Amino acid sequence: MHNIDFEKIARYLSDEMERDELKGFRQELSQNSALKTELELTEKIWVDMKPIPSDSMQTEIDTHNAWENLSGRLEKDGLLPSQNRIAAALPGWLKIAATVLLFVSLGFATWFIAGIRSDDQLLTLTTDDTDVTLVQKLIDGSVVYMASNSLISFSKEFEKKQRKINMSGEAFFDVSHNPDQPFYVETALAGIEVLGTSFNVKELDTKSMEIFVETGKVRVNLRGSDGNFFILEQGELLEISNGLAGKTYAADTYNTAWRKNHMQFKDETLENILSVLNQNFPVKMMVEHPELNQRKLTVTFYNTSPEIIGDLIAISLDIDHVTSDDNVITFRNKY
């Protein structure tokens, strides 16, 4: 794992570097792709945050306290050197940047979030070119992870005999098992039928796409091929290009971990957020008081440990949380 110096990023973006330090940082950027990616992402977040309308700020954010809360956990996890906790030594930009996560989780940063359009019957979700994964839990319990530049649309209420989603771009589906109500994903090149499984669909261009099955089994019906279809089982990859299709075993090489790096939730209940996090992290998160399940968050987690996620959720909802010796994080009301 790369050790990213976030103070350097902050100093660079706030134009606080001396000439020699700036020269060294630019050289490091040319050699460290992870640092360059993190810089670009942080810069986009900061630029996008500047046009916050003043009348949207319904809650005052204490940037100093926000930084103190976050930096303590970052230091503990080895993500921030201990000397960086000295408030006077930190650039003001970095303290403010620390609150980006709080703005998002409190629902102010809706300009980060994918577009959501709906009419009386249809709901459409879209993502832009931001390097985040929009996570959406569906009414049937299935979870969709949307990559950038993607679109899905579906009925607000699934039909009794089927669950159907139309999509373009790339998405990972973790489908809730229901043999009486099969799940269909429709794309320009193929239709995919599943009962209960997890799989990745990626359109490469208008004539080519990939379908990878992580668990379970799917049937892929090819468009314009006189009924040709493929059955894909766990670990198998189907590649479609210019009317031709073939499958290979790719469990050891195909990467679906992208969906976990920058997970984003839009106006989602805490119950659904914890359900998704429990599926993706080696930790159990739960609530002590059931009424907390229906509290809603808009939040993005950037390559964040479960411990920091726990801190952010608690700060955002103004609740307490404790971590047990067996790695269970429990959220509860403040007494």
CATH architecture of the largest domain: Sandwich
Number of domains: 3
How much helicity do the residues have? 25-40%
Q: Would you list the SSEs in sequence order as H and E?
A: HHHHHHEEEEEEEEEEEEEEEHEHEEHEE
Please state the average pLDDT score. 78
The order of strands across the largest sheet is: 15-14-11-10-7-4-3-16-18
List the uncertain runs: 49-63, 77-114
Secondary-structure class: alpha+beta
Query: Could you name the CATH topology of the largest domain?
Result: Jelly Rolls
Tell me which oligomeric state these chains represent: single chain
Strand content: 25-35%
Total of DSSP H or I helical runs spanning 4+ residues:
9
Rg measurement, Å:
22 Å
Provide an overview of this structure.
This protein is an alpha+beta fold. The protein has three domains: 6-110, no CATH class; 115-249, Jelly Rolls; 259-332, Phage tail protein beta-alpha-beta fold (3-Layer(bab) Sandwich). The protein has nine helices and 20 strands. The protein has helices at 6-13, 19-31, 33-49, 63-76, 92-98, 100-105, 258-261, 270-280, 306-317; strands at residues 115-118, 122-126, 133-137, 143-146, 151-155, 163-168, 170-174, 183-186, 190-194, 198-205, 208-215, 217-222, 229-233, 236-241, 244-249, 262-269, 284-287, 296-302, 320-323, 328-332. A hairpin with a 2-residue loop joins strand 10 and strand 11. Helix 4 (63-76) crosses helix 5 and helix 4 (63-76) runs antiparallel to helix 9. The longest helix is centred in the first third of the chain and has 17 residues, at 33-49.
